[in-house]
Amino acid sequence: MLVTNIEILPDKRIVEHLGLVQGSSVRAKHVGRDIMAGLKNIFGGELKGYTELLQESRAEAMERMIEQAEAVGANAVLNVRFSTSSVAAGAAELFAYGTAVVLE
Amino acid sequence: MIDLIILVTLLALGYGFGSYAESRHYKSIIARENRLRHIPAVTSRFPQMNNNSRDAELVSGSVVISVDYFKRFIAALRNLVGGRVTSYESLVDRARREAILRMKAQAEQLNADIVFNVKLETSSIHKGRGNSIGSVEVLAYGTALKTQQ
């Protein structure tokens, strides 16, 4: 499965457009990470726990998007975009969407 | 009285560790930017349609950075009079550059030569006390391509 965020590929031709596919994941941070983050809020610097957490959930959102693309018979997802929103206090939604296509 | 002592201690800790961490972070950012200069990250949407470009792959980098207590205090004061909040400007600048660097590092691992259609997304994920922003997350993503033979 090829995933990119450009609309056309220089070395491949698009045979068929299959429409939008999407995947999302909602995660909450756990308490241990929250305490560490509280400390970091005094000293400043990178919140590694949060970086990892968001990376994991973004990977999961992408996986779900790819699953959906496979289900409709695509072999690539083009023009992928990410978006983040906080749905509730302490939880974030990571959302990935793109166009499923069949490449020759 | 005890509150005042705690506040001053937190401010001093924040100032000391915060500015040390920031200057160290900037040094490492500049060093890595110089090292990764051979992989340009561009915002143009369409790669050149010659036959050399190949192996497109999504690359991304993200980082969550928090401001220190001292800077948050200064920003709160700044809120009273308005104007540029320089303490948050350096925060988002560091976060963006770090995210782009991580994206480029991923592109380097794939032996790519260029990263196309770079997009940056910033979100505040953690609200501090009151309505002050505690930390920001920046995500940079784009498509890595090989352009050489």
UniProtKB/TrEMBL annotation, chain A:
Pfam families: YbjQ_1. Belongs to the UPF0145 family. This is UPF0145 protein JAZ07_22155. It comes from Candidatus Thiodiazotropha taylori.
